Amino acid sequence: MASSTSGHCLFLAALLLLSSAAYGQQLSTSFYATSCPSFESTVRSVVSSAIGSDPRMGASLLRLFFHDCFVQGCDASILLDDVGTFVGEKTALPNANSVRGYDVINNIKAAVEASCPGIVSCADIVALAARDGTVLLGGPTWNVSLGRRDSTTASKDEANRDLPSPAANLSALITAFGNKGLSAQDMTALSGAHTVGFTQCRVYRGRIYNDTNINQPFAKLRQSNCPATPGVNDTVLAPLDLQTELAFDNAYYGDLLKSKGLLHSDQELYNGGSQDTLVKKYSSNSAAFFADFVTAMIKMGNINPLTGTSGQIRANCAVVNN
């Protein structure tokens, strides 16, 4: 009987140990509360300064987080430079001409390292900067779960394959997001991030010249600065949201109702398909959009994070530690 009791106690102890270890692997909103209590205020300060100098940066930091999480999970792999034989993701087609904000992340990392050396991951910096960029442009806030670690690998091939194309149809978009554990509703809410930011002529040229489900005066407006000839004015910028280009609100959905989505993939959300009702709801109910956006951002931030002893805490976000 004593032997049985002893075995039972050992079994319970093992379960508790495993439970404790599993809990330690999870993300937590208080992860740095003791080890780096100034982390969140430092991020907010640097992001605020960056947006003050360049109002587009809030949207860029949000996009950076999205492009990170969709490739290998939220692990800061997008920040890694091509060094020697190492190939990063920065030159992948979806990233090369549209992702920016690396310098802001580096500035945050330097500031955090000055007060909490070797503690905070680049992946967590990217996640928190995306939240703060959203808030500083007038969008919703949320508690960001932290504790991610940084990848020692990157995948240019995965970036080229998994990041949704601006020319994608609705079915392809739903599949791309579904492959990352995100629903069609999550996808439609996350697309609302296009209520801020700009994109280049090379990205929206096909939409304004080839699509039939586009408001013609709007198409003409964009064609005035974006010629049909590839290679001409490729880098000319246009706002993704015609109405309030630098304010995080629900105006983007109103654009879609008027067939004024700048990207083909944007207008696919309101084109006689399964997301039409949701687009209408978001266009008239800002609170509903904000709530669903927050839910989707939290879900996206939980895509395959490295935790515990996986990965590393990079000293320099652009290169793997020696």
Describe the structure in your own words.
- With 322 residues, the chain is an all-alpha fold.
- The protein has 15 helices and 2 strands.
- The protein has a two-stranded antiparallel sheet.
- The N and C termini lie far apart (55 Å).
- It is an enzyme of class 1 (oxidoreductase).
- The record marks 63 as: Transition state stabilizer.
- Its main location: secreted.
Task: Quickly list its features.
two-stranded antiparallel sheet, 322 residues, Peroxidase, domain 2, single chain, disordered N terminus, mainly alpha, Peroxidase, domain 1, globular
Write a brief caption for the model.
By secondary structure, the protein is mainly α. The protein has helices at residues 2-24, 39-53, 57-69, 93-96, 102-115, 122-136, 156-162, 170-178, 184-191, 201-210, 216-223, 251-257, 264-267, 276-284, 286-300, and strands spanning 198-200, 237-239.
